């Protein structure tokens, strides 16, 4: 019988008890109604408050950072004019990459909560039917167990792709990732042992109504850990190439973070043939000479819209936009080359301001390009708070909506970093 509390697992698979009632009794919960009442009240208050929903003024499908034409996709990847391309969204491109990996390499496994069902975002849809339950399967609700099992598989030469249903749930597996996966190569000395075939996928970021437990973007926590790679794609074509590289060609465990707001919002033409993208190279999306804007994932769309508006308002203004793609290790050479050219830099990301990826990038720019800087390096980020449902709208960096308010500062100071600061 399907669970009413989860997506596709039976109660016994999910919680280890034949019924939810037995679980509650075993934990001596005094009153289920008394337990749920405060939760229900808070839920009602947060969902009915004024402005509780986020309304992003971005038309993703029209963004210039997506391949709107078939020829654009072909030229971006150096393909011939008769090469086949498909119109895909982000979750479709991920599904295609997973299918290719499973078909190409029999050592590839795919598992996690509800993965056999297709996943809550449908990224693994249809894969169990084609490859069977021995290669694409569900796991119990235990992130520590999922990642621990994946590390063991990778250590034995398999290529496990473990799915954490939401990035917010990865914390029980933090010890496994930091103390086991990241250190495995170092611990093995000269034996050559590693668990580089491991990929941990996780949807991340805000969609405007996720609340405290479905809106976090914890990438910075993993950028402090040597031995891990952290990747976040911006688009379907990037998602496909980066995931192919992560599964089939990386010698290090990869934390592969998927901005869930882009699963269906980002659509473009994607090359049909299989391809890979480098896991250590930033991508210059737009060249410029006056300012370098550095970002990754969903905020790139906001940056692109803000740049378009600024360049329209200030004649002759030229802004460079760079997608990090690989958050750790990140491409310092490309960033330094750009900032040494422009003399100004703004780092933009959705996650928290405090000790975020932007702090490391900004510090590195100060060290490596100090004599060329014409203004302090600025950061545009989410606030350093736990954002409940009613605060989510205010926590998200929204550059475009600041255009009218910040434009006078740009003109007065001739320093574009003022414009990009919330």
In short:
This protein has 422 residues and is α/β, with parallel strands linked by helices. 38% of the residues lie in helices and 16% in strands. The protein folds into 3 domains: 1-38, no CATH class; 60-271, Rossmann fold (3-Layer(aba) Sandwich), CATH 3.40.50.970; 283-420, 3-Layer(aba) Sandwich (Rossmann fold).
Written account of the structure:
By secondary structure, the chain is α/β, with parallel strands linked by helices. It is built from 18 helices and 14 strands. It has three domains: 1-38, no CATH class; 60-271, Rossmann fold (3-Layer(aba) Sandwich); 283-420, 3-Layer(aba) Sandwich (Rossmann fold), CATH 3.40.50. The protein has helices at residues 11-15, 20-26, 32-48, 70-76, 90-104, 127-131, 143-155, 174-181, 184-187, 219-222, 236-248, 262-265, 299-313, 332-342, 357-368, 392-395, 403-413, 417-420; strands at residues 85-89, 108-112, 136-138, 159-163, 199-204, 229-231, 254-259, 267-271, 283-286, 291-295, 319-323, 326-328, 345-352, 378-382. α11 links the parallel β6 (229-231) and β7. The N and C termini lie far apart (50 Å). The relative contact order is 0.12. The model is unreliable at 42-56 and 400-422 (pLDDT under 50).
Rg, Cα atoms, Å: 22 Å
Walk across the major sheet and give the strand order.
3-2-4-5-7-6-12
**Beta-strand fraction estimate:** 15-25%
The CATH topology annotation of the largest domain reads as Rossmann fold
Q: Can you summarize the main beta sheet?
A: 7 strands, mixed
Percent in helix: 25-40%
Overall pLDDT: 85
Shape: globular
Q: Based on the structure given, which CATH architecture of the largest domain is correct?
A: 3-Layer(aba) Sandwich
Structural class of the secondary elements? alpha/beta
SS elements, strand count:
14
Cofactor: thiamine diphosphate
Catalytic activity: N(6)-[(R)-lipoyl]-L-lysyl-[protein] + 3-methyl-2-oxobutanoate + H(+) = N(6)-[(R)-S(8)-2-methylpropanoyldihydrolipoyl]-L-lysyl-[protein] + CO2
Keywords: Oxidoreductase
Protein name: 3-methyl-2-oxobutanoate dehydrogenase (2-methylpropanoyl-transferring)
């Amino acid at each position: 019988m399907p669970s009413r509390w989860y997506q596709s697992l039976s109660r016994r698979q999910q919680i280890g008890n034949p019924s939810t009632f037995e679980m509650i009794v075993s934990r001596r919960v005094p009153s289920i109604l008394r337990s749920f009442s405060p939760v229900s009240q808070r839920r009602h208050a947060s969902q009915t408050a004024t402005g509780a929903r986020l309304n992003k003024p971005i038309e993703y499908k029209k963004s210039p950072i997506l391949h709107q034409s078939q020829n654009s996709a072909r030229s971006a990847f150096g393909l011939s004019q008769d090469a086949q391309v498909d119109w895909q969204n982000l979750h479709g491109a991920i599904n295609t990459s997973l299918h290719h990996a499973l078909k190409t390499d029999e050592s590839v496994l795919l598992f996690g909560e509800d993965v056999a069902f297709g996943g809550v975002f449908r990224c693994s849809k249809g894969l169990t039917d084609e490859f069977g339950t021995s290669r694409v399967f569900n796991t119990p609700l235990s992130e520590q167990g999922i990642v621990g099992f994946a590390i063991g598989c990778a250590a034995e030469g398999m290529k496990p792709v473990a799915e954490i249903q939401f990035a917010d749930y990865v914390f029980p597996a933090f010890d496994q990732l930091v103390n086991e996966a990241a250190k495995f190569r170092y611990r093995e000395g000269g034996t050559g042992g590693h668990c580089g075939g491991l990929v941990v996928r996780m949807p991340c970021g805000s969609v405007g109504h996720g609340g405290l437990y479905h809106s976090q973007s914890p990438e910075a926590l993993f950028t402090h850990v040597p031995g891990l790679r952290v990747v976040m794609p911006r688009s379907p074509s990037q998602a496909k190439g980066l995931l192919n590289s992560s599964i089939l060609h990386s010698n290090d465990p990869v934390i592969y973070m998927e901005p869930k707001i882009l699963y269906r919002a980002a659509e473009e033409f994607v090359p049909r043939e299989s391809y890979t993208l480098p896991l250590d190279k930033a991508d210059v999306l737009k060249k410029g000479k006056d300012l370098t804007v550095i970002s990754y994932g969903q905020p790139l769309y906001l940056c692109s819209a803000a740049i378009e508006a600024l360049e329209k308002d200030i004649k002759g203004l030229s802004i460079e936009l760079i997608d990090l793609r690989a958050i750790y290790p990140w491409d310092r050479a490309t960033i330094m080359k750009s900032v040494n050219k422009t003399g100004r830099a703004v780092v933009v990301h959705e996650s928290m301001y405090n000790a975020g990826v932007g702090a490391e990038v900004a510090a590195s720019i100060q060290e490596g390009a100090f004599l060329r800087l014409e203004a302090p390096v600025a950061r545009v980020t989410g606030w350093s708070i736990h954002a409940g449902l009613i605060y989510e709208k205010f926590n998200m960096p929204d550059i475009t909506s600041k255009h009218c308010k910040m434009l006078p500062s740009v003109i007065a100071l001739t320093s574009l970093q003022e414009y990009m600061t919330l």
